[in-house]
Amino acid sequence: MEPPVSITETLMPVPDAAGVHTHAPASDRLKARFSRNLKERAIEGVLFLAAFSSVATTLGIVYILLSESWVFFQHVPLKDFLTDTQWTPLFDDAHFGIMVLLSGTLVSSLVALLVAIPLGTIIAIYLSEFAPFAVREIAKPVLELLAGVPTVIYGYFALLFVTPILQWFFPDLGGFSLLAAGLVMGVMIIPYVSSVSEDAMRAVPMAIREGSYAMGATRFQTAVRVVMPSAFSGIAAAYILGISRAVGETMVVAVAAGMQPNLTWNPAEPAATITAYIVQVALGDLPHGSIGYQTIFAAGLSLFVITLFFNILGHWLRRRYREVY
Amino acid sequence: MSTPTPPTLDTHQAKLAAIRKLIASAKRWDLVFAGAGLLALSFGLLVLVALFADMLISGWMRINLDFFVSFPSRRAENAGILSAWVGSLMVMFVTALSAIPVGVAAGVYLEEYAAKNWITDIIEINITNLAGVPSIVYGLLALGLFVYQFGFGQSVLSAGLTLGLLILPIVIVATREAIRSIPQVIREGSYALGATKWQTTADHIVPYSMPGILTGCIIGLSRAIGETAPIITIGALTFIAFLPASPVSASAPFINFDWLMSGFTVMPIQMFNWTSRPEEAFQQNAAAAGVVLVVMTLSLNAIAIYIRYRLRKNIKW
Q1: Would you call A267 helix, strand, or coil by DSSP?
Q2: pLDDT for A120-163, tens place per residue?
Q3: Could you tell me the sign of the dihedral formed by the alpha carbons of B227, B232, B234, B238, in that order?
Q4: How far apart are the C-alpha atoms of A251 and A313, rounded to whole Å?
Q5: Which residues does A144 contact at the CB level (< 8 Å), separation at least 6?
């Protein structure tokens, strides 16, 4: 290793053999600057590669999902995949109707949203328009905690705490149900809905509220009739991001909703969602390259497309409210 | 025909009273709604309390030293979480080592270096979208790419890299926010002394934003430690009664990397496995494992909150 060259050595006049102080030759300084620039360039390149790795991840996801699904769709026509009403990929009489899994996903997400949207919206309005500073300072970390609890723990909670309570009210309810999974999932999603909608409402300028108060409106009237409409696209974005979370949630439904594919619209029944099916197959021992192995990529592709649609819609809406003010 | 009488003081007062009544009744809604808001908030709190209390009550009996130093077993009362917590630690190590350098470098690039052009736009849109991809899709990516195409198998390495990709957006966003809060004068001061861009970044920007970056990294890791779905998807085993080879040994070469390729299980998978068994004894084990998992997650979060608190206290630009 060379000792590091100090600034004084490179920039200050150095004594030559005769003891006369002269500047280092211009060519040396140019060389030093050249190598310095080269190093800077190289570092920038490395940093760029790091940033680009996120794009590579997306490309990787798309490539893997498409290439494995491509093989799958060679065996199963897309039309059957979309219209068949049975999902029995591992039976001798195999059917591949994604509708079956989709119904489970839709019903559980719907139940979750029926919990998360009202509660999340009320909490967001309360925190943004009503709550004193101290309450907000305490409430926000608690809500963050609600989102930070590992999902497998919510699965445990849904199966062994919520289901028995529900069975007490509805004795006919089985041990696994979309209802129990959906309710717990809803609580889990509350913080996502509330924090994005609260941000949107707080972005509404104070002057708009003051105008409303000056007309004699109360806080509640101002919140519901002035602030909420002004923050509409942000709140809509929050709901949509909540939907996307619910659709992609895995462990709660895998634990508490059962893993039996079941084409149903009844939340009291057990059913598999897209995500639960992937977990079920991954837990088993399917040989790499078999049709059963490829079904999880086809299912994953459907999931990816659905959540991507909602995410893009959500971000588009969120961008819009930022541009208004 | 009578001429309209001018409003007397009485009618004026009556109108005023009517308006006051209207406002008062509208204000009642304020109270009702404030009550509803508090109720909704405390419902969230109540769920958290119920969740922890329930797990603590059913799992309390099982939490003792034996539980931490025993392998899983077919007999619930002998089963423990040794392989699970060791596996979690190893996977977290790989995750931290892969996600933090790449994430911080990406954040630095986007804040300090990136030109405002379409490539940067694509990277930014892409990061926001990645944050919304369901975690199980990362598992599918890892299954296809790491496990089969790269041939890492169902190993600690595959799992660590998968979770690394998963928390990359969190680390990048935290790094960017931390860097953004550094005032421009710091950069100008550094440039004025002749520092290059990289010298400015490495000697000033990154050290000064360290608390924010650390907070983000820890929150990312606390998310990763509880992730179950992607690790199940890559085919982690649920019943592991051995430990991966030790990374350090008493004889030369002292350090080995066999553990990277070893089979493994992690805390959330162990808990999932026990939860899905019908016997109540195993479900008590699940509750105990859940308590340990929550304590792990919460202590990571507490560290992050503490660092954030220190940051607010010590740094004033």
Answers
A1: coil
A2: 999 999 999 998 888 888 888 888 888 888 999 999 999 999 99
A3: positive
A4: 25
A5: A191
Burial label for A145, CB within 10 Å (0-12, 13-18, 19+), is middle
| Contact across the interface for A39 and B198, Cβ inside 8 Å | yes
Instruction: Render pLDDT for A79-135 as a digit per residue (tens, 0 to 9).
Output: 888 888 788 877 777 888 888 899 999 999 999 999 999 999 999 999 999 988 888
With beta carbons less than 8 A apart as the criterion, state whether B139 and B230 touch: yes
d(CA B140, CA A296): 8
Q: How far apart are alpha carbons B137 and B162 in whole angstroms?
A: 10
Question: What Rg do the C-alpha atoms of chain B give, in angstroms?
Answer: 28
Domain positions in chain B? 82-267
For residue B57, give the amino acid letter: I
Sign of the dihedral defined by the CA atoms of residues B56, B84, A192, A251, in that order: negative
- DSSP sequence for B123-136: HHHHHHHHHHS-HH
Encoded amino acid at A122, one letter: I
Report the residue of B141, B296, B300 to disrupt the A interface, i.e. the one with the largest count of A CBs within 10 Å: B141
The complex scores an ipTM of 0.86
Q: Which of B48, B126, B238 sits opposite A55 (nearest CB)?
A: B126
- Structure tokens of A63? 């490539």
Q: List phi, psi (to 5°) of A271.
A: -160, 155
pLDDT tier, A67 (very low <50, low <70, confident <90, very high otherwise):
very high
**DSSP secondary structure of A172-183:** T--SS-HHHHHH
State residue A6's pLDDT score. Answer: 46
- Superfamily of domain covering B82-267: MetI-like (1.10.3720.10)
The confidence score (pLDDT) of residue A5 equals 46
Looking at residue A53, its amino acid is S
**Among candidates A57, A123, A275 on the partner chain, residue whose Cβ is nearest the Cβ of B134:** A275
Amino acid type, A75: H
Greatest CA separation for chain A: 104
B92 vs B216: CA distance, rounded Å: 15
Amino acid at A202: R
Check A50 against B102: CB less than 8 A apart. yes
